[in-house]
Amino acid sequence: MRKFFKPLMAVILLAALSACGGVPTATRSAMPDDTMLGAALPPDVRIESFTVNVPRSLKVNDRNLYYPIGDIVWRGEPRGDRYAQVQAMFESGLRDAAQRVDGPRPVRLDIQVTRFHSLSEKARYTVGGVHDIDFRYRLVDAETGIALGPSKLVNADLNGLGGQAALEAEGRGETQKVRIIAHLSRVIVEELTIPEGHVTAKLGLLQAINDL
Questions:
Q1: Residue 103: φ, ψ to 5°
Q2: What keywords does the record list, in alphabetical order (predicted)?
């Protein structure tokens, strides 16, 4: 019964809302799933290289429901290899972030995506929602190959525009892909430059449902 609770709650909430109207190198051989440990942040680092792993064990859902159940839900690009598309967005965000993280200690940044649940077409063009993005990262000294502490799990949720707001954003060139890449870049910069790291935005009931 529990597995039906989240989509049921999301559909009920979406229906209610609707009624209201409303430059480093990317290393392709990313770390295996079981090497992520679990986070102290060494100060003054520089991203010399990175890896991004989107495990094939994550479940993709391309059904056009208000709240498709799955680990990867992505509709900002034509149908294709969703794992590769998510990986490419993270890599773009990392390349941008690397230009703003310029400490003296060179590191490799390893990222493993654990969830990338964006908006379906139905949600995108009605009430919007939340881009629910989670990943784990670790830093490795580029010279010694030694991990600098354990890995850290980051929640990088972003508000997902819907309806007229989504259409207006598209008209300005602010597609879902553009917004998410820029957001990922900000999150990574905050993680590596601010003592407390990235602080997840409070995005209301839909975010709470995602976290159940």
A1: -85, 175
A2: Signal
**Both tokens of residue 184?**
């990922």
Amino acid letter, 78: P
Counted residue by residue, the chain has a size of 212
How wide is the angle at C-alpha 157 spanned by C-alphas 78 and 94, nearest 5°?
Answer: 70
Q: For the chain, what is the domain count?
A: 1
At 50-87, the pLDDT tens digits run 999 999 999 999 999 999 999 999 999 999 999 999 99
Using alpha carbons only, give the angle 85, 163, 172 rounded to the nearest 5 degrees: 65
Record the tokens describing residue 144, joined without a space: 């010694």
| Cβ neighbours of 66 (radius 10 Å) | 20
Q: Would you give the DSSP letter of residue 139?
A: E
Q: Whose structure tokens read 């839909």?
A: 206
pTM of the model: 0.81
Boundaries of domain holding 121: 2-210
